[in-house]
Amino acid sequence: MNRQKLARLGTSGLGAGLGAGLMYLLDPQGGRGRRALARDKAVSKLKTSREAALAKSRHLGNRTKGLVAEAGSKLRRNKGTDDVLSVQGDGQTGTQGLSSAGLDSALDQANRELQTSLP
Predict the structure, then answer these.
(1) Measuring CA to CA, which residue among 78, 79, 86, 81 is closest to residue 108?
(2) Domain extent at residue 96
(3) Which residue among 11, 16, 106, 119 sits deepest, i.e. has the most Cβ atoms within 10 Å of its Cβ?
(4) Residues 65, 112: one domain?
(5) 26 SS3 class
(6) How confident is residue 118, by pLDDT bands cut at 50, 70 and 90?
């Protein structure tokens, strides 16, 4: 079979299936009950989907709040103990724990040491 025949066969099958479905739903004797059942199932699925979406939204919001709180806690914990890279008198590099108040004096000292070592 070539493609054109297969396409025609698929279209015919789709049309037959659609016609049978419409006959089933529009049947004068039992169609009204079938339509009501389909409507009730659709409404139920929409309600369930809405509730699931709201629950997922609440979950993601709570996780975001937790991450922000955790990050803030870590920042507050490390606030007064910044590690500053300093050059020691023998030229070796090391770290020195400084509070934010002592940072200015450490920078001034580093500038003076750099200016004296430049030709």
Answers:
(1) 86
(2) 82-117
(3) 106
(4) no
(5) coil
(6) low
pLDDT at 21 over 80: yes
In a shared domain, residues 64 and 92: no
Contact 83, 95 (CB under 8 A): yes
Do 16 and 68 have their domain in common? yes
- Distance separating alpha carbons of residues 110 and 104, to the nearest angstrom: 10
Residue 102's pLDDT is 63
Structural domains of the chain, count: 2
pLDDT at 75: 77
**Exposure b/e, 9-46, CB count within 10 A at least 16 = b:** eeeeeeeeeeeeeeeeeeeeeeeeeeeeeeeeeeeeee
Mean pLDDT of 65-75: 84
Task: Give residue-wise pLDDT tens across range 24-40.
Answer: 888 889 889 999 999 99
Cα 73 from Cα 95, distance rounded (Å): 24
